[in-house]
Amino acid sequence: MDEEIKSEEDRGTDEDVNEYDILPESDPEDDIVYEKDYKEKETLSEKLFEQLILLNLSERDIMIAQAIIGTLDSFGYLTGTIEDIKKSLNDKSIEDEDIQKVRELIWNLDPPSIGTRDLRERLIVQSKKRLDYERIMSLLNLTSERLKLIIRFIQKLNPNPAADFSTSSVSISPDFIVTREIENSDDFIIVLNDRHTPPLKLSAPYIEMFQSQTTKSKRFIFFREKINQAKSLLNAIALRKDTLMKTMYSIVKHQKDFFNYGTEWLKPLTLKEIALDTGFDISTISRSTNGKYVQCEFGLFELSHFFSASIPSETGGDVSNQIIKSIIKVLIKNEGEKPLTDEELSKQLANKGYKIARRTVSKYRESLGIPPAKLRRSV
């Protein structure tokens, strides 16, 4: 009975909930709540970062690991060279061996063999982890040399010949839309495309029920707890939007020439540079950009497109390795009946002012999903 007797001073007040504007109630039909258990799928980067924390690595090794994970493509392959990663870290004390050591640690995470350069290296890593060569030689009555020949032959096979062909059409909705404020101006408007996200608000009927309770009642405590949880959720959503917008603003600022003039003006950019500019750590930038897309006047681009290592140019300054990959793609597209080898591609790049080693050309070609010259010859 005591709980039913309430004085004005005992009731919940607007001060308990006024941190958020209560939106006006909509039509009764809109009050129907369709509940569904939505859970965002964990990204590869998030899964790897969670495991790295358990390895008790030094701060230096964690920084290297973040740089490596930041260069992974959607298949978990390394898109840059060891030298690219070293440049992105901008720490002269870090050697190639340090990066390789951390890369091998990442190989052993779940899923295994992530961070390998190509299919061949991935299969080698997986085979070393899973196969007992002595047992295979014994069962098949093979010499070690014969087994090596068989392994080399298998490594050259293509287990997924249909990988270059699309099986279905996938519609991608951009997460950001970048437009010019005024035609031909250098100022841009960035919009977070959240039209598929339902507007969230504190329920007005529940607020009224909360305010009608005495401050010491069980119902008051229950409502206060749930309202605080709702506020925490709204705060988290607002913080996420703020992080995404600050990250996108920083990318546009660093890649202004790209958004002004097109893909050929893409500059070298690392996750670390965006992290320093925004004040977030590298892992936050990696999560904020992973799987996100931006629509601009030059097309739809994944945010990972804007991050690339720098390649020195004879004309002065550095260019993005994405530009080098684009040149390689064009050279191969126009190569004629006799396919260009990686060595010949390296020479043609040198003629254009880019000194790129044959091995690096090979890595870039493989990252584009283009087979070597001897296989292109048979196509």
Structure characterization notes:
The protein has helices at residues 44-53, 59-70, 82-89, 96-107, 119-130, 133-140, 144-155, 204-211, 218-254, 256-261, 271-278, 282-289, 321-333, 342-351, 358-367, 373-376, and strands spanning 176-180, 188-192, 293-296, 299-302, 310-312, 318-320. The protein has 379 residues and is α+β, with helices and mostly antiparallel strands. The chain has three domains: 44-155, no CATH class; 176-306, no CATH class; 310-376, Arc Repressor Mutant, subunit A, CATH 1.10.10.60. The strands form two sheets. A four-stranded mixed sheet has the order 2-1-3-4, covered by helices on one side. A two-stranded antiparallel sheet has the order 5-6. The longest helix is centred in the middle third of the chain and has 37 residues, at 218-254. Residues 1-28 are annotated as: Disordered. One of its GO terms (biological process) is DNA-templated transcription initiation. InterPro entries: RNA_pol_sigma_54 (IPR000394), RNA_pol_sigma_54_core-bd (IPR007046), RNA_pol_sigma_54_DNA-bd (IPR007634), RpoN_core-bd_sf (IPR038709). Residues 223-377 form the RNA polymerase sigma factor 54 DNA-binding domain. Residues 35-206 form the RNA polymerase sigma factor 54 core-binding domain.
